[in-house]
Each structure stands twice: as C-alpha cells, then as structure tokens.
Design goal:
Elements (H helix, E strand, L loop, with lengths): L4 E2 L2 H8 L3 H8 L13 E2 H19 L4 H24 L6 H30 L2 H19 L3
Length: about 150
C-alpha cells in the first residue's frame, strides 16, 4: 500500500475536505481512526477509514423511505469520491489533466522526430521514391499528432 503523510492537521483536513470542527465532532474520537505518527498524518489510512465507516453506515441504513434512500445515495457518492481520492494518492489513477499533459509531451516529441526521420531517409538512401513515401508517412502522422494537441 502506498501511504502519503501530511505534517499538520490542517493539511489532513484539506485532503479530507472537511472542517476542523467536523473532524473533531465526527472522526477524531472514533475508535480505530488513524492517529498522527512520527511521519505525520497517514492520508490514505484516514480516507480509507472514513470510506469504510460510511460504507458500513450505508449498509446498516438499508433502503427504506425516500429520505433514507436519498441519504444512502449521498453516502454512496461520498464513498465513490473517497475511492477516487485514494486511487490518485496510490497512483492507481491519475488526474485527467496530468494524463493529457503527458500525451501532449509525447506528441510534441514525436512531431520533432518526424522531420528528422525524413531528413535521415534523404541523407542515407538517396532514393527519391523512398523519400516520397517517408514524407507521406510523416504528413499522415503529423496530422494525427497535431489533432492530439
């Protein structure tokens, strides 16, 4: 398991997206809630604790009235949100912005290499027909890569 630690309670509250009052009223005194260690507050353990507690609460609620179903759905959505946060911290998932930035970087590198590819074909083969094919490949790939930027 990948754990990330934050040094202060304020940082933990930011990760958990709750207020200090909500933390002390709801989580701080619950049995089994992770405590601060020498490394700091264990973010993943705290989020997993909250997720598991909410999931148990949702199970105990069952589906009764409309109000109970609405509360249950809200808790389920909160659990899904916590799962997403945990996945990002554990690097099982990355934010879409980070993914897109990586894709753009790869596309730029490939675009730079395409012109070099054609130059190398021209310099090493002296074959006009092969050069035309290389230019066509370059142009098709450029069109596809530029669509990614």
């Amino acid at each position: 398991m990948t754990e990330r630690y934050v040094p202060t309670l304020t940082a933990l509250l930011g990760e958990m997206d709750i207020t200090k009052q909500a933390f002390h009223n709801t989580w701080a005194n619950k049995p089994g809630f992770p405590t601060k260690t020498a490394k700091g507050w264990p973010v993943v353990a705290c989020l997993e604790y909250v997720r598991d507690h909410k999931a148990r609460k949702a199970q105990d609620m069952g589906a009764g009235s409309d109000k109970a179903r609405a509360s249950l759905r809200k808790i389920e959505l909160q659990c899904e949100e916590l799962e997403a946060k945990i996945a990002v911290i554990k690097r099982e998932s990355i934010p879409i912005e980070e993914h897109n930035a990586e894709i753009e970087q790869v596309a730029r590198i490939m675009l730079a290499g395409l012109d070099q590819f054609v130059q190398e074909v021209a310099a090493h083969t002296k074959d006009a027909e092969l050069l035309v094919i290389a230019e066509k490949v370059r142009d098709r790939m450029k069109a596809q890569l530029e669509g990614m930027l």
